[in-house]
Amino acid sequence: MAVISVFVAYPIVSSFILSFQDWNLVGTKEWTGFTNYQRLSKDSIFKDALRNTAYFSFGSIPGKILLALFLALLLNKRVFGLKAFRTIYFLPVVCSSVAAALMWQWLYDTNFGFLNFLLRKIGLGPVPWITSDKWAMPSVIAVSVWKDVGYNMVIFLASLQDVPAEIYEAAKIDGAGRWTMFRYITLPLISPATLFVTIMSVISSFRVFDVTTVLTGGGPGTATISLVQYIYKCAFQFFRMGYASAVAYVLFLIVLGFTILQMRFARRWVHY
Amino acid sequence: MALKKLEGETMGWQILVHVILIVGAILMFGPFLPVISASLKSYSELMLRPFAIIPKKFLWGNYLKVFQEVPFLLYIWNTVKVSFLCTVGVLASSSMAAYAFARLRFPGRNLLFLIYLATMMVPGQVTLVPVFILMRNFGLIDTHASLILPMWGLTAAYGTFLLRQFFLTIPRDLEEAAILDGCGYFGRFTRIILPLSKPALATLGIFTLLSMWNNYLYPLVFLNSPEKRTLTLGLAMFRGDVDVQWNLLMAGTILSICPMVIAFLAAQRYFVEGITLTGLKG
User: Fold this and answer.
1) Which residues are CB-neighbours of A148 under 8 A, at least 6 positions away?
2) Do B221 and A79 make contact, defined as CB atoms within 8 angstroms?
3) Which ranges of A34-161 would DSSP assign to H, the alpha helix?
């Protein structure tokens, strides 16, 4: 309890206060009111970071959830080699983001990368995966989906295994087809898991840092810089603690807003 | 037995499911293959024939070289130390807090629990700057304690929530029998609740272990000395060298993943069960 108040509660309050101050970690703190926030509204890197984080979230979350659900549905059946499949799909989750980013940096390399080698084999030109504005973010999203889909899959799987088989039996007797059963039995019964997965995915995608930092360094230019990366830069490279806190608070409010919105909206589609 | 169950499904459907699963598995495991292959090649072979999956000569020595070129053993030791201490701390504190929330009655219990849950919503990165300043004031910058302590705070709420859900499913009758035998709170906790909660504890343990093992932002911010680096930081810095030896870097990457793969395989039996029973799903 004490640990939580010192390392979670206190910092929340403290970073709020800090966001109204100017401080370079060495000099004295200076109260500047809303200046940091005003500056943010004109800061083009901040806007890029915001846009990239939104792009990343909307690009990766649907893939992470739908693919995970699809895989979980397939693996919930009696399938030959079930355990092997489950382990393979979970393997990238176990991999650290840094390791994943390093691996993919090698795979994505324009000249020596394996992906472009495969493309050349089928007669297509090399794609500058992580070195062009256009491709960088989709490439980052692909790595992130690859890495996280197994985690969501396991949670869906756990939930699917709780659905009583008798319900399906009864529906079958009533002549329900596959789609009807999925739509009116499976989906409602696993909706709490869907909510959990969605909220967690939203929170984690707004925190993206490792993949963008190691894989692309936020580049090319600012094409893949994320909010957290910008917080890190402001605080520990430019030593503008107050400004970094202001960015952090914008991030916090966005995450909080989305979470509350999802909880609200959830009452309509989640069945407990 | 299995065949009988399969009868409900048509053969074609079964084949389709397997084809999709195999394609998926190739996509998931595929990226590891060129990486493993690269890790076994010599640097010159890697440059000349980057795409041959099977190396001309398997240089298992690359894996040894990783230990010679960079203080890899030290990185592993640092990571093990930090992850282990963090996991033990989270398991101990969240299981005790969860027990209190699940079984004890005290004033303000519900409010406290709500506050606990609220802290789960806060991304650790948001509080990074104040935590950094706090650590600096404690004089803990560039120590491993600066990685462990904040994680206790950040993971404990999640852990408490997860374990509380699980503890609530353990029948009270068991504890009442123990009370009759003269067992105190602590005895009931250690002798009844904990042994019955292995799946949930394993799930929380592996999640905490994973997140610590793979943590990059905290070491990046809190550590300065090269000899304190953790694996993720070490690997990322290794890449920063002017002349990247991709074969060694890939060997190091594979090495860094292996311990977690083993830990996951060992805990897998409890894993799905733990998630099912804790009601983590909702």
Assistant:
1) A60, A64, A92, A93, A201, A204
2) no
3) 35-42, 44-75, 82-94, 97-108, 114-121, 133-160
Q: What is the pLDDT of residue B151?
A: 81
Q: Using an 8 Å Cβ cutoff, are A168 and A183 in contact?
A: no
Give the predicted TM-score (pTM) of the model.
Answer: 0.86
Q: Decide if pLDDT at B31 tops 80.
A: yes
ipTM of the complex: 0.83
DSSP string, A5-37: IIIIIHHHHHHHHHTTEE--SSS--EE-TTHHH
Strand positions, DSSP E, chain B: none
Question: Minimal CA–CA distance to B244: which of B36, B38, B30?
Answer: B38
Q: Give the three-state DSSP class for A221.
A: coil
Chain A: closest CA distance from residue B163 (Å): 15
The predicted-structure confidence for A21-55, as pLDDT tens digits, reads as follows: 888 777 777 788 788 888 888 888 999 999 999 99
- Terminal C-alpha separation, chain A: 30
- H-helix or E-strand containing B218? helix B217-222
- State whether B129 and A245 contact (CB < 8 Å): yes
Task: List A residues 27-66 in contact with B (Cβ-Cβ < 8 A).
Answer: none
Angle between the A35-42 and A241-269 helix axes, to the nearest 10 degrees? 80
Tell me if B145 sits within 8 A of B134, measured CB to CB.
no
What distance in Å separates residue A134's CA from the closest CA in chain B?
22
Smallest Cβ–Cβ distance between B250 and the set A78, A97, A106 belongs to A106
Residue-wise pLDDT for B222-239, tens only, equals 998 888 899 998 888 877
Residue B181 scores a pLDDT above 60:
yes
| Residues B48-61: tens digit of each pLDDT | 777 777 888 888 88
Contact B183, B191 (CB under 8 A): yes
CA distances in angstroms from B213 to B140, B148, B219, listed in the order given: 20, 11, 11
pLDDT of residue B282: 41
CB contact under 8 A, A210 and B217: yes
Using CA atoms, how far apart are residues A272 and B11, in angstroms rounded to an integer? Answer: 35
